[in-house]
Amino acid sequence: MRVVLHLNTIVRRLYSTCTLSSSTLRKFSTQSHYNMKTDVLQVDPSHFTFKESSCEFGEQNAISIINNTSDQLAIKQAVKWLAQGEAIGIPTETVYGLAANALDASAVSKIFAAKNRPQDNPLIVHVSSLKMLESILPHNKIPDIYMPIIKRCWPGPLTIILPSSPLIPSTVTCGQPTVAVRFPSHPVARALIESCGFPLAAPSANSSGKPSPTLASHVFDDLNTKIPLILDGGPCNVGVESTVLDGLRQPPAILRPGGVTYEVLKQMEGMNGLQVYRKHFVDQALEMAPTTPGMKYRHYSPEAMVVLIEDDKMIINNNDDTQQQQQRQVFETIWQDELKQLLKNGIGIQKVGILKIVEDGDSLEWRQTSKLDEIEYVTLQMGRQGHPDEVARGMFKGLREMDTIGVDIIFVQGVPEIDEGMAVMNRLRKAATKTI
What is the dihedral of CA 297, 302, 303, 306, to 10 degrees? Predict the structure, then answer.
């Protein structure tokens, strides 16, 4: 057994303010055994193009064209598995998804089984056209509030809350009267859904509670032998899950920040008074019976403990070198003091991981390794100062890499909650064992 498991027990007790979710506890319970062969097929997103229709929403009703034989065969194989009611791993622009036929309750159940996902955590339905969306809605009608947003933000990393219909199994909505739907912009995902002819339910393709996968290798690490196929479309270019917008509420609300930012949405028609859940309001009833993923359970956690360090005086001005230096020093001082306290309490730590923001001129491959007093330190960058989009892409990758390295504890530097930084901090707070 890894040392970190012993550390987990000690530190979770020490950090008594943090509670374990049922999904985390299930990691130690008896799980189903799988012996399925998992194939990984390469697909090149550049081989997928789209011909827009002549209607007003031409891009949202475009037809896919696949310009490569091997990619055509890969999509054909994926469609075959999905039509047979299996769940497979697929690339999207946000994170890799674990997809199954959203209209087939039996197929959807395989998503929950493969991920060991709580049964009351709803799924997001993915469509490839407005025509497909209309076909699964009551009276085939998209609420007017969403039309300007769809025009600008779809396809893309935005999920909207819509009235559900009897076509959607209750396993997808967890018995709620609404359903979360998104139109992904990733060429492979779009073409696959269109080729299937039915929408796909697709949460992140990871074991429930672990950091979301942004590479096909992450999916393989978590779900090998549990699913028959993974389509490898390369790294995800957003790197954090979609924004979830509930325009049916008054005022409208972002239930989960993501790739489409609050700053963008609040300027759009019909979004007057836009709120963000847990920033502007809370709703205990909504959290206990969520309409969308990411609200009820602890998520995104690596095996090692995560200590998130937030600076309430965090700067936004990237041109002030003195302020940047002070901010870096605050982070360094706090994590070093916290480590000293843990060691003083008798917790055996042999390897420390540090995820931080680097200066604007530093390389995106920036990494340092050092050793002091028998403790190894591994420092990775999540992104550059003032580039929250880079941090969003690097955050989950960094957490997973720290697990691969085998660190005992991870100290993570927070970022300002502007643009994609709001989504980054939402995920890091859910991943953290302790926040300072």
Answer: -90
User: What is the reported pLDDT for 362?
Assistant: 67
C-alpha–C-alpha distance, residues 206 and 222, integer Å: 6
Quick check: 82 and 200 in contact, CB under 8 A? yes
Among residues of the chain, what percentage have pLDDT more than 90? 75
End-to-end, the C-alpha distance of the chain in Å comes to 29
**Token reading at 281:** 């309001």
- Of 200, 230, 206, nearest to 216 by C-alpha is 230
Phi and psi at residue 420, to the nearest 5° = -70, -15
Buried b / exposed e across 32-59, counting CB within 10 Å, b at 16+?
Answer: eeeeeebeebebbbebbebeebeeebee
Assigned token pair, 227? 């699913």
The ranges assigned to domains in the chain are 3-20+298-435, 31-288
The pLDDT of residue 18 is 37
| E strand or H helix at 283 | none
Instruction: Give 203's contacts (C-beta < 8 A, 6+ positions apart).
Output: 97, 98, 111, 115, 117, 121, 123, 124, 293
What is the C-alpha separation between 13 and 372, in angstroms, rounded?
A: 27
3-class DSSP state of 58: coil
The CB density around residue 244, as the number of other CB atoms within 10 Å, is 26
Q: What is the topology classification, in CATH, of domain 31-288?
A: DHBP synthase (3.90.870)
- 396 with 370: CB under 8 angstroms? no
Rounded to an integer, the average pLDDT of 223-229 is: 97
Domain 3-20+298-435 in this protein, CATH class: alpha beta
Q: How many CB atoms lie within 10 A of CB 323?
A: 15
Q: How confident is the model at residue 276 (pLDDT cuts 50, 70, 90)?
A: very high
Q: Does the pLDDT of residue 2 top 70, yes or no?
A: no
How distant, in Å, are the alpha carbons of 86, 87, 199, 208, 209 from that of 82? 5, 6, 11, 21, 25
* CA atoms of 200 and 189, how far apart (whole Å): 10
Q: Is 179 in contact with 125 (CB distance < 8 Å)?
A: yes
**Helix, strand or coil for residue 195?**
helix
